[in-house]
């Protein structure tokens, strides 16, 4: 108690000090007698009372406390103390307390100083590396500290470099002589600075300006080296660029002349001599013989005045060579001020643009004309259309735009080659020019597209006269490569002001009318009608909306039951995609599926259908319908995916469904398009364990030789044939033949589009195994399907009686 260097206080239950050791008296600056008159709380600093009360509560709970508190000495000064306090009982079971403490004010002050120093070093933009000094010999000093700036610049973390030699940062380009100089200075415990290359963690070199200072202990012994490194990569890059610029100046093709603030020549480059014919000796120091300005006397002073104000000037001059020949020059004059802001130098850069001027007119022509046909191009046509529209609006006159496309031009290019196609376009351009007035504009937009601007029409219908003249001109064959080619064109017409009042709108409407001619069979003309634009806008809106349909949860699956014809048992359901968009409403699959195919969106949509349908299949099986399979339609793009099997396997695994209960439906066209690849794809699906159905059979084309080799399970008769039985003889013959052929190939048959009991009875009689259609059940939402299956695993479809119960109710509601 007495010999402890830590202060010790013993207090009675009420808190009065019973005893204090010598260290306590010394630290607190109070005598033993003074302390024994005090409550222990009186020794605590007033500002630290909240921490004191928390410490007392902790000691009361746990029987002890350990931490830091603030004490008050006898002279009123305060100090930080590290405290350990314990409760104990005497022989009479009274609770006393002991307090062991030591003054840590100096230690806390040192720690705070160290914290501030560390924070400063941590925040430096320069890199700091500290190494041990007692390991200068091989393998070299070891790193003991790096700051965050080092980590940012080098790409190494502190953990990667601490304990290793700084040599890990060096590489092939690190100057060995510089390293030797640094080492020699460190061996003498002298500070040293140098520039050298280090390498980042990813192998990127960077230049550093390094200052290394020995760190001495209290005995003057060097214990560490502190290195401050500054990244000077950018500075070195600028220096290198300056060297390159000087070299480039001497080798550039442009003439360069440097004038002082008085206009005297102080420097010229070799290109100046080459362009002007004057040597450097002839012009240096001479203000009157700046031959570049010989034909522009008096302008030099004006230009220098402008450059002083704006810092730069550029324009064209007529220069004169030493031989007296004049030439056009593009001249740029810049001001380079002295560092103190005083007038500096003027850099004159010029180039002989004689060749450029010679080609300028040609380039201007080519910029506005088609190189192949010499007709105005898209840009010139648009300019003339804007001007014509303004004139027509000003004079209240009629005008029209014809948009023309050569029918099946791609076939000519593909079969006869592009040279033949180009020759045909040139010949057609000549014929078209013969069909229009000199005041009209005939242009080629590109490819096989031509446009015609007709101004000052007596009536919009006059545009049809020109269209008929063009159609007539195209009836004569065109001889290309020794053969006669017969061509036709599709022409769309948009009139001002009836169809549109703006140039872009006129072009767009004529284009829409032309595409309508294409859809109607080509070889004709058509005036624009308003509904064309509405259709195009809807298609554009649909295209835009389709991109966000998945993210917006706009798709839904409905399920149409597939029924065993003999028993009425529901053997499966076909998943059918529905799209309900807030702007477009319910969109028909016939509209959006082809669009999804064209844009490639069918792949993520198809994956969503696969995932959603397999999850529904899992729910059906969990609900007690283990014998219901799920049929999903595959698009052509999906079927050709290299990872098709993996995506199907992933969906089945995620849903926890056996492949046996998944049926994939593909069309005849998909099967026969690349039959050899189809064989491999179907074999892979067969090995996976899923069933495959050939959908819409009879509407496409099939090679029966291939059909017998394909791994198929079901043949689905297209509903167009089912609709004709039993009264249409052709439909009857085709349907019975398909059923017989399928059975001969070992395939089960599913009839689509069953709408009457009579059709169902006939199919049963012919041996068709399964059927689906509105007579049995319309496509149902998920909850409707589950309700149907909960009440009717077997649909009531006996011969001669219509469906009853929930199935009929759901059909009528839908």
Beginning-to-end CA distance, first to last residue: 95 Å
How many strand units? 31
Assign an overall shape: flat
Helix content percent band: 40-55%
Low-confidence stretches: 800-814
The biggest beta sheet is recorded as: 8 strands, mixed, barrel
SSE map:
Elements: E1 7-11, E2 17-20, H1 22-28, H2 32-36, H3 49-62, E3 64-72, E4 78-89, E5 95-103, H4 105-123, E6 127-132, E7 143-146, H5 148-154, H6 158-161, H7 176-187, E8 192-199, E9 205-216, E10 222-231, H8 233-251, E11 255-260, E12 265-268, H9 270-276, H10 280-283, H11 299-310, E13 312-320, E14 326-336, E15 345-352, H12 354-368, H13 378-395, E16 398-406, H14 409-416, H15 418-433, E17 441-446, E18 449-457, H16 462-473, E19 478-480, E20 483-485, E21 489-496, H17 503-519, E22 524-527, H18 530-547, E23 555-564, E24 570-581, E25 585-587, H19 589-599, H20 602-622, E26 629-633, H21 636-639, H22 644-655, E27 662-667, H23 668-672, H24 675-688, E28 691-697, H25 704-707, E29 714-717, H26 719-722, H27 729-744, E30 748-751, H28 757-765, E31 770-771, H29 782-791, H30 805-813
Parallel strand pairs: 21-22, 24-26, 26-27, 27-28, 28-29, 29-30, 30-31
Antiparallel strand pairs: 1-2, 1-5, 3-4, 4-5, 6-7, 6-10, 8-9, 9-10, 11-12, 11-15, 13-14, 14-15, 16-18, 16-21, 17-18, 19-20, 23-24, 23-31, 24-25
Notable traits:
814 residues, eight-stranded mixed barrel, five-stranded antiparallel beta sheet, 30 helices, 41% helix
């Amino acid at each position: 108690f007495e010999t402890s260097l830590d202060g010790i206080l013993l207090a009675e239950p009420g808190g009065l000090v019973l005893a204090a050791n010598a260290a306590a008296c010394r630290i607190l600056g109070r005598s033993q007698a003074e302390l024994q008159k005090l409550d222990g709380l009186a020794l605590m600093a007033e500002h630290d009372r909240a921490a004191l009360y928390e410490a007392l509560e902790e000691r009361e709970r746990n029987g002890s406390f350990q931490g830091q508190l603030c004490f008050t000495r006898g002279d009123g000064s305060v100090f930080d103390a590290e405290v350990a306090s314990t409760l104990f009982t005497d022989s009479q079971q009274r609770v006393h307390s002991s307090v062991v403490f030591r003054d840590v004010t100096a230690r806390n002050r040192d720690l705070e100083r160290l914290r501030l120093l560390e924070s400063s070093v941590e925040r430096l933009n320069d890199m700091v590396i500290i190494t041990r000094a007692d390991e200068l010999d091989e393998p070299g000093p070891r790193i003991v500290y790096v700051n965050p700036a080092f980590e940012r610049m080098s790409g190494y973390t502190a953990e990667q470099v601490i304990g290793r030699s700084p040599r890990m940062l060096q590489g092939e380009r690190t100057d060995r002589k510089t390293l030797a100089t640094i080492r020699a200075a460190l061996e003498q415990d002298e500070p040293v600075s140098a520039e050298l290359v280090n390498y980042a963690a990813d192998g990127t070199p960077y230049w550093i300006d390094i200052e290394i200072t020995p760190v001495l202990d209290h005995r003057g012994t060097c214990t560490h080296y502190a290195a401050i490194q500054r990244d000077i990569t950018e500075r070195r890059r600028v220096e290198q660029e300056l060297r390159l610029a000087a070299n480039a100046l001497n080798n550039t093709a442009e003439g360069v002349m440097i004038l002082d603030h008085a206009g005297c020549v102080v420097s010229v480059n070799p290109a100046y001599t080459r362009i002007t014919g004057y040597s450097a000796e002839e012009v240096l120091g001479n203000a009157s013989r700046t031959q570049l300005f010989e034909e522009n006397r008096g302008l030099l002073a004006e230009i220098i005045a402008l450059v002083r104000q704006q810092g730069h000037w550029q324009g064209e001059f007529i220069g004169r060579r030493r031989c007296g020949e004049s030439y056009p020059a593009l001249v740029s004059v810049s001001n380079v001020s002295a560092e103190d802001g005083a007038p500096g130098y003027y850099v004159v850069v010029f180039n002989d643009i004689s060749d450029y001027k010679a080609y300028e007119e040609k380039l201007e022509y080519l910029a506005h004309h088609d190189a192949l046909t010499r007709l105005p191009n898209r840009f010139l046509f648009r300019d003339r259309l804007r001007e014509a529209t303004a004139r027509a609006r000003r004079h209240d006159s009629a005008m029209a735009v014809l948009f023309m496309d050569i029918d099946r031009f791609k076939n000519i290019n593909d079969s006869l080659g592009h040279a033949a196609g180009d020759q045909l376009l040139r010949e057609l351009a000549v014929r078209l020019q013969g069909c229009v007035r000199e005041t009209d504009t005939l242009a080629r937009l590109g490819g096989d597209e031509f446009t015609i601007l007709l101004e000052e029409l007596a009536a919009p219908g006059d545009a049809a006269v020109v269209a008929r003249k063009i159609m007539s001109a195209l009836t004569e064959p065109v001889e290309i490569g020794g053969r006669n080619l017969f061509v036709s064109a599709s022409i769309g017409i948009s009139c001002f002001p009836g169809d549109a009042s703006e140039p872009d709108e006129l072009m767009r409407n004529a284009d829409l009318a032309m595409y309508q001619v294409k859809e109607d069979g080509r070889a004709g003309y058509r005036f624009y009608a308003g509904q064309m634009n509405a259709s195009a806008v809807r298609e554009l809106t649909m295209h835009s909306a389709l991109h966000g349909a998945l993210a917006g949860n706009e798709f839904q699956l409905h399920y149409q039951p597939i029924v065993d014809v003999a028993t009425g048992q529901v053997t499966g359901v076909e998943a059918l995609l529905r799209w309900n968009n807030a702007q477009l409403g319910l969109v028909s699959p016939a509209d959006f599926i082809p669009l999804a195919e064209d844009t490639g969106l069918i792949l993520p949509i198809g994956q969503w259908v696969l995932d959603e349908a397999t999850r529904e299949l899992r729910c059906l099986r969990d609900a007690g319908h283990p014998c219901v399979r799920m049929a999903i339609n595959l698009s052509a793009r999906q079927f050709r995916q290299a990872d098709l099997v993996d995506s199907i396997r992933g969906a089945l695994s995620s849903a926890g469904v056996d492949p046996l209960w998944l049926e994939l439906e593909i069309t005849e066209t998909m099967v026969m398009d690349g039959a050899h690849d189809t064989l491999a794809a179907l074999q892979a699906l067969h090995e996976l364990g899923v069933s495959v159905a050939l959908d819409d059979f009879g509407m496409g084309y099939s090679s029966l030789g291939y059909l017998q080799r394909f791994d198929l399970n079901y043949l689905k008769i297209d509903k167009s044939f089912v609709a004709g039985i039993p009264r249409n003889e052709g439909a009857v013959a085709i349907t019975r033949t398909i059923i017989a052929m399928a059975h001969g190939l070992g395939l089960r048959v599913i009839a689509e589009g069953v709408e009457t009991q009579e059709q169902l009875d006939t199919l049963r009689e012919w041996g068709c195994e399964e059927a689906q259609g509105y007579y049995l059940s319309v496509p149902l939402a998920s909850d409707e399907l589950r309700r149907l299956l909960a009440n009717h695993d077997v649909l009531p479809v006996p011969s001669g009686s219509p469906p009853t119960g929930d199935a009929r109710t759901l059909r009528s509601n839908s």
